[in-house]
Amino acid sequence: MLALSNRSFATTVKDKAAQRDPERLKGLTLTKQQVEEAMKAHYDEEGSYSPPHASTFPSIDRRACLMNLRIPPLGIAPPPFGDEQVKEIEQKTTLRRDNLQWDREHWTDDSLQPDEKSVDVIIDDIQEMYKKGVSFATINLFIDWFSGADKGYKHAIYNKTWARIE
Fold first, then answer.
1. What is the DSSP letter of 117?
2. Of 13, 36, 45, 61, which residue is the least packed, with the fewest Cβ within 10 Å?
């Protein structure tokens, strides 16, 4: 005999890791009105646009930039993403170790088509790290780690040049 119950099953750990605080970016990003006001500041009286000076953009120093430099023939590889970086991220953001692990598993999951992947969640994670003051070096190491560059994943994001990833 089959008995049905109204008992709901617990959410799996993987599902919980995919969940994020919906209010985590509140107040950190500009509203549409604020963006429009900022854009108006770059137009003169005649309506000509003059872009902002490059010195007003976020920038990182060479050391932080080189954190995820990877040139295998020369034996250049970044340090591993470890507990020190996870601790910094956990202290400054709402993200936890299981959230970071979910990012990695989700990005490197080949069973999902590219349009099925929730890249917006990963983008928001990186934006939250940046806006809440996680160091650029840690963010660069996180990008290297979650995208699978340390394992040679074919769709990894890594730095083959001396360029910054921003």
1. S
2. 45
